[in-house]
């Protein structure tokens, strides 16, 4: 697009100030700025700003929040019959090629002392496998389980994996997968795509410059995945996640965050539950650890399902208990683990303008428009706009919630080593403890102090371990195939 047309577009939208230094720029800088401006939908930016400001004002008088109504949430805990039924239905969908997986993996391990993508992190397991490798091997194992239990030929079942990176992590993520030969998966079934960005704005909604020739931008939040699924995969590939899902015949998508070492990728139980409920969108939750736990909960805001942040819940509400069960009334802790139908993901664009982005006021390095000097603010001088993945929940007609056991499915990696909670040590502890339970449920005995790591290639969720019944394990170690377990007796 010609520069004059780009400038006219920005002038009409109220952002002509972005050309303040145009006459002083080198030709390469002009080209870089015009390319960046051409890719930004400036009218969408204006709409998002106006909606975010209006929503923030409306939040001063919020709708009443209520716990989930009776029957809105079912549980796999202590309900083996339902779990078995849902698992069978989910495996059948996987075997028919109707399931895909969407991984939110745009973050870096900054809090963990690493600049690498978070999925590359080693939580200190005996095998030293990364989070990416664990999740890849769970997919590989689940494909085999579906083949065996649904009488499909070996190698015929495929669960495509859509990995959402961010601008700063995409190249390193792709290199990590390539270096590790996609952890045994076929590269054609691992699709990388990129989370979007939005310009940083002043309090008045004006787009900020990072330098005289570059707009300041920031990631658009994990809810940016919805727009990202309809964005071309790369400059050389016009396919999108949505078009690829359609081409493959994928009807159901499991989405999750990279930092949970216990995540059941493409969980057949969750999938089967959602399919049986004919849900468009669903959330997997765990019971809150305590009334004061700093976690959002799935609840009702007015007449609609929503995630209510812990800061929005009063102490009195947090302590409130169900008179029949004795459980916390606001108990459904959100763990960023979701189900969608492909048709629902396609529909998000139709109501995207109704979604309110959240405002985060930040200190944003910028340029003084009068002098051209760099400005490093000491207090917030602008805003970043973010959408959260759960912001679509209120727009869902058929929504479902499934409660699972925290110790089996949720151990997030959020904090630096040695913190004592949600850190590499607790992740490692929780995964090793789960593997002990797998063996003990299969009829084995594991001596005190013995730590056995089971590769996901051996067992996805404790299945296939019948041969250990009656055995006593006395040695620690990591196991890549069933035969290696005998060395630990």
Distance between the termini: 69 Å
Arithmetic mean of pLDDT: 95
Unreliable parts:
none
Q: List how many beta strands DSSP finds.
A: 23
Helix fraction bin: 25-40%
Largest sheet: 8 strands, mixed
Overall body shape: globular
Query: How many helical stretches?
Result: 13
Which structural class matches the secondary elements?
alpha/beta
**Radius of gyration, Cα only, in angstroms?**
24 Å
Report the portion of residues in β strands: 15-25%
Neighbour order of strands in the largest sheet: 2-19-11-14-10-3-4-5
Please give a structural write-up.
It is globular, with a radius of gyration of 24 Å. The protein contains 13 helices and 23 strands. It starts with a helix and ends in a 10-residue tail after the last strand. Helix 4 crosses helix 5 and helix 4 crosses helix 9 (about 270-275). The relative contact order is 0.15. It has an 8-stranded mixed sheet with strand order 2-19-11-14-10-3-4-5. The chain is an alpha/beta fold. The chain has helices at about 5-10, 25-40, 40-60, 80-95, 130-150, 170-180, 225-230, 240-250, 270-275, 315-320, 340-350, 405-410, 425-440, and strands spanning about 65, 75, 100-105, 160-165, 190-195, 195-200, 210, 215, 215-220, 250-255, 280-285, 295-300, 305-310, 330-340, 360, 365, 375, 380-385, 400-405, 445, 450-455, 470-475, 475-480.
């Amino acid at each position: 697009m010609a520069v004059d047309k780009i400038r006219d577009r920005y002038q009409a939208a109220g952002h002509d100030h972005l050309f303040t230094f145009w006459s002083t720029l080198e030709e390469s800088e002009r080209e870089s700025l015009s390319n960046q401006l051409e890719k930004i939908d400036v009218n969408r930016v204006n709409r998002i700003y106006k909606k975010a400001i209006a929503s923030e004002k409306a939040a001063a008088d919020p709708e009443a929040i209520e716990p989930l109504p009776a029957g809105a949430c079912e549980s796999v805990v202590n309900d083996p019959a339902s779990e078995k039924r849902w698992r069978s239905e989910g495996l059948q969908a996987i075997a028919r090629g109707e399931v895909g997986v969407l991984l939110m993996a745009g973050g870096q391990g900054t809090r963990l002392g690493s600049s690498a993508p978070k999925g590359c992190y080693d939580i200190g397991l005996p095998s030293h496998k990364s989070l990416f490798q664990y999740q890849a091997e769970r997919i590989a194992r689940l494909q085999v389980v579906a083949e065996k239990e649904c009488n499909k030929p070996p190698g015929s079942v495929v669960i495509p994996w859509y990995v959402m990176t961010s601008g700063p992590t995409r190249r390193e993520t792709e290199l990590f997968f390539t270096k590790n030969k996609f952890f045994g998966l076929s590269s054609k079934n691992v699709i990388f795509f990129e989370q979007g960005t939005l310009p940083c704005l002043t309090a008045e909604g004006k787009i900020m410059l990072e330098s005289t020739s570059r707009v300041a931008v920031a990631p658009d939040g994990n809810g940016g995945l919805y727009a990202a699924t309809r964005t071309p995969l790369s400059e050389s590939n016009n396919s999108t996640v949505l078009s690829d899902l359609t081409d493959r015949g994928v009807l159901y998508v499991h989405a999750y965050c990279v930092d949970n070492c216990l995540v059941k990728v493409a969980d057949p139980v969750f999938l089967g539950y959602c399919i049986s409920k004919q849900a468009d969108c669903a959330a997997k939750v765990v019971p809150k650890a305590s009334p004061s736990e700093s976690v959002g909960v799935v609840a009702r805001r007015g007449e609609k399902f929503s995630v209510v942040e812990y800061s929005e819940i009063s102490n009195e509400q947090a302590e409130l208990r169900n008179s029949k069960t004795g459980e916390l009334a606001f108990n459904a802790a959100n763990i960023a683990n979701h189900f969608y139908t492909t048709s629902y993901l396609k529909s998000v664009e139709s109501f995207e303008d109704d979604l309110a982005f959240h405002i985060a006021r930040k200190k944003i390095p910028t340029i003084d428009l009068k002098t051209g000097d760099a400005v490093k603010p000491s207090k917030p001088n602008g805003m970043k706009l973010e959408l959260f993945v759960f912001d679509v929940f209120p727009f869902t007609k058929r929504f479902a919630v499934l409660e699972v056991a925290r110790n089996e499915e949720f151990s997030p990696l959020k904090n630096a080593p040695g913190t004592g909670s949600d850190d590499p040590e607790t992740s490692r502890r929780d995964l090793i403890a789960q593997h002990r339970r797998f063996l003990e449920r299969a009829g084995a005995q594991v001596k005190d102090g013995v730590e056995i790591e089971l590769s996901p290639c051996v067992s996805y969720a404790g299945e296939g371990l019948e041969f250990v019944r009656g055995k006593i394990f006395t040695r620690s170690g990591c196991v890549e195939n069933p035969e290696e377990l005998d060395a630990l007796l």
